[in-house]
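request received
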Amino acid sequence: MPKIKIPKSSPSIDMTPMVDLAFLLVTFFMLAASFRASEPVTVNTPSSISDKFIPENVVMVTIDQDGRVFFNLSGEGARREMLTNMLGKYKLKLNDEQINKFAFMSTFGCTMQELPSYIDTGADDRITFQTKGIQVDSTENNELHDWLSFAATAALNSAKTAFEEAKLNGENPVADDFKPKYILRVDSKAVYKKAEEVINVFRDLNLNNLNFITSSELAPIN
Amino acid sequence: MAEIAESGGGGHGKGKKRAKKSSTRVDMTPMVDLAFLLLTFFVLTSTFSKPKMLPLAYPAKTEDIPEGAEPPKMNNGITFILSKDKIFYYQGEYHPKENPDKDGSVTELIETNFGPGEKGVRKLLGKLNTYVLVKKQGLDDKLRRKEIADSTYLKSLDKIKVETDALKALIKTDDKALCKNFIDLVDELKIAEVGVIAPVDITPGELQLLKAKLKN
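response:
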């Protein structure tokens, strides 16, 4: 009888399926990942069961652990409008490059005096920029109040433009979807009194419907 | 290693020299390495939980409240007083020693906690707001049986939440309370379907009660 020969299997494995899978996953994660613009401040938000998404048109105030206040307004055009008004009020001058930089910046936090040097600082270095944030406390020099009131007007204007545009495009827009939302992003460890100061600025401007940014947590099952 | 490109052809001693037949197989190892490197990078850096927002309406500022005016009467109210990682509450109106309730009772702060336990604020609110929760259950059932539309459901729920028998909450904080404490409480109130949530300033009397409580 002839010996049964065990076929010698090749030590090389076909890797094609694995490679396919790897690239599939890479593609998925690449498309699903959302990259955030580098923020000048890190904030750990508290969590809640709320499931409301953050809309596009927002006016956002950030309060970090140490109670420093930062500001953000969405929309390049609105930011330009706000900055122009702000510069007019504080009699400051910025060059075109600085204004452009500001228009595409995300969250910022500095006093009006610091603003030019703050803008000139690179995006990644702003996190180490020595600043007390936007001034809130003094009543005669409440810079947040001015930022906020100009931002609210600018945001409303851009909301109107977007609404009209949607109308022209033959869509059936709901005005409420375009209205700017006023958002507070507070750090878990920030003292609530500091947030209250900021909230009072909102309320002074008659903006009473506020939203807190929270990370989501599961609702209890009952 | 995966595929080692085999050396093809050759090996004929004599005869015509043939062009070397190169294998059609390519070594894929570097590509696979790269693919997994990218995969690891994206897995580690991507964040999926998008932040959400918790809406909260603050009472409008009214300028013409005369000094020392009586605060508006509130039916079925509960007042929470927050300090750093501590939470106290009392029910109904505030009655200091000088101005006791009709039956002579004086406001006392009761301590609770943020946990879901027996003494926690979730159980407490669930008990106090049964009126709304039971009605909500009824609405939920109707919604499930498709007797009412989504919009009707939301509208009636909002209506129930502000009825006289529904619980209303005031939140007061001292200067040590953290934002986390505040948000946690608002969250618990939302879980318990409390419709009226009003963050207001603490009164000196309440602050004293709180200080006395915090001491022991």
